[in-house]
Design a protein that fits this description.
- The protein is an alpha/beta fold and 203 residues long.
- 28% of the residues lie in helices and 16% in strands.
- Strands 3-2-1-4-5-7-6 form a seven-stranded mixed β-sheet, sandwiched between helices.
- It is globular.
């Protein structure tokens, strides 16, 4: 299959997508460099994923989109230094757009939002999934203290995901060098969802 992996991050969801032609789109050059080191055979584009989807959605068999979660996360309600902001509605723009105009199979993923469910979703662990095909997947329990960098560090998260890279990655004003690991959809969830899709592509 030709797979489009939007807002790819370092590619947690993608780890077990073997024998497919994968194009990843990521805006941050440092994160894209880590992705490319992990998946050297993928095409990696440093572009605006939201805009890329608009013009290229029908060039792929399967689209996975994980728009930024920060403005939707329940962490928005916690922390002394957090300022209220509008939820980024591009998440829902993509769901509506894909429903109406795309011929591909697709998944849009985000965290459980602090404001409740605006469009019905499939809930797996801390994730919401919207899609145009039926799938099942089991959650992979997170390490205890997952969001506390003093309790769960980079090595713990890499061991949990089975994804390893050298150095630290900072992005978008984030002061935790391994937040990119916390942002990952666990590879096992990505595998289970793709496994549900593959029989559909054969019919």
């Amino acid at each position: 299959m030709k797979i489009l992996n939007l807002y790819s991050g370092i590619g947690g969801n993608r780890k077990y997508w073997n024998d497919h032609e994968v194009t990843a789109v990521e805006t941050d050059e440092k994160i894209a460099a880590v992705y490319k080191s992990l998946y050297p055979n993928d095409t990696v584009l440093i572009q605006d994923a939201h805009e890329f989807l608009l013009h290229n959605h029908n060039d792929f068999d399967f689209i996975w989109s994980s728009p930024p979660c920060q403005s939707h996360s329940r962490m928005q309600l916690a922390g002394r230094n957090r300022k209220p902001r509008y939820p980024d509605m591009r998440l829902y723009e993509e769901i509506v757009y894909l429903r109406q105009f795309s011929n591909a199979y697709w998944i849009v993923e985000n965290v459980k939002p602090y404001y409740g469910e605006l469009i019905p979703a499939t809930v797996i662990g801390r994730h919401y999934f919207w899609s145009n095909f039926s799938f099942t997947a089991q959650d992979v329990p997170r390490p205890k203290g997952f969001i506390n960098p003093k309790r769960v560090g980079k090595q713990d998260l890499m061991d949990w995901l089975g994804i390893y890279y050298e150095g630290n990655v900072y992005y978008d004003g984030n002061h935790c060098p391994f937040q990119v690991l916390r942002n990952c959809v666990h590879p096992e969830i990505g595998r289970q969802i793709l496994d549900c899709l593959e029989p559909l592509k054969m019919t």
